[in-house]
Amino acid sequence: MANPTVLTAVPPAPAREKGSDFSELSRRIAEAGLLRRRPLYYTVRFGAVGTALAGGVTAFLVLGDSWSQLFVAAALALVFGQLGLAAHDLAHRQVFSRRRPSETGGLLVANVLLGMSYGWWMNKHTRHHANPNHEKKDPDVAPDIIVWSRRQAKQAKGPARFIGKHQAALFFPLLTLEGLNLSFSSFKALRSPSMKRPVLEGTLLVAHFAVYFGGLFLVLSPGKALAFIAVHQGLFGIYLGSVFAPNHKGMPMIEEGTELDFLRRQVLTSRNVDGGVFTDVFMGGLNYQIEHHLFPSMPTPALGRAQVITERYCAELGIPYCRTGLLASHRQALRHLRQVGEPLREKR
Questions:
Q1: Residue 324 main-chain phi, psi, to 5 deg
Q2: Which of 31, 41, 220, 236 could form a disulfide with 179 if both were Cys (CB 3.0 to 4.6 A apart)?
Q3: Does the pLDDT of residue 144 top 60, yes or no?
Q4: What is the pTM of this model?
């Protein structure tokens, strides 16, 4: 699929009655039984991640003050990435249908285990889902450091003005800071009026980092502890970026004033990533990004079947449906970053 940088026109609507396109797809998905909860799947998946976390902590304690701990740091980066995916599914109520257990699980996984505010991230991610790739409404494409459209590039100031010139080359190096950025943003958000439980969330965040840094500097020498943090947080950030970047980066941006119905807004700005079982596990089901955006509460194991139904339905309506491989998706994203940063390279 050839993707324009900015989406300014709406594909022609089919003859079907206005507003009914998504309803018809939703009916087909419901009839296939794809929205029911999958408790066995999540029990096995979360149990495996919990076992891996316990194994990593045990290895850390057994090895003691050794440079071999850097291998533990790398392994725990992958475990933290899986914890992030678990927090994501909990936030979307894919695991539990009710709010209370979803929120309790989210606070445990995000705040206690990851050091990231569940409330802050959920608010941010909800706004992203409502308006993916919207230049002004999607917080994931705010031009804080990286610019995502040529319009943003022309208006860029501060760090974004400099980094935007070379952002394609700097993208993965910048991802090494993403884990720390999530934690920093979490603490910063505690002062926000939108934070419902700042005291509880702040307490859990402090507890996480007290154990994290306390354990590292208690077991390891200062040099090894700092090296552990660099490897662990750096690879964790790269992992998160490698999971989330292929989903929307390089897909069309939506300008203010562009009118799109729910179905087209979600499909046209999202990209699915093919790759089989490995990709499914690595990306936690987010490789089915189109279906996830259309049905956020759909459990992960149902997304593959939903993909077949959704792609066929989009073909019926003539709606472009983007699928590609993991490496190709990253190439498209990096190509997009280079293209939209061009106005900054042209300025003298």
A1: -160, 175
A2: 236
A3: yes
A4: 0.90
